[in-house]
């Protein structure tokens, strides 16, 4: 850490496609967790 003045320099912004892909991944993970918890709860 030789540059404490800039802890997180904004070198680049992620592409819109990356954000949409991340959203779909999070949605899929959330759905999987709901299904697993539902199966555990109803059994």
Could you explain the architecture of this structure?
The chain is mainly alpha-helical and 43 residues long. It has a domain at 16-43. The protein contains one helix and no strands. The longest helix is centred in the last third of the chain and has 27 residues, at 16-42. The radius of gyration is 19 Å and the shape is elongated. The chain starts with 15 loop residues before the first helix and ends with a helix. The model has no long low-confidence stretch (mean pLDDT 78).
Distance between the termini: 52 Å
The count of strands amounts to 0
Largest sheet: none
Shape type: elongated
Portion of residues in helices? 55-70%
| Total helical elements | 1
Radius of gyration: 19 Å
Q: H/E element string?
A: H
Query: How much β-strand is present in the residues?
Result: under 5%
Secondary-structure content class: mainly alpha
User: Which spans of ≥5 residues are poorly predicted at pLDDT below 50?
Assistant: none
Mean pLDDT: 78
